[in-house]
Amino acid sequence: YKGDTITADRRMYLHFYYSPDRALEDEKAFNNRMVVWQNELESGQRHPDHEKHYAKYFTVKSTPVRGVKVVANEEAMAEA
Question: CA 58 to CA 43: how far, in whole Å?
Answer without folding.
Answer: 14
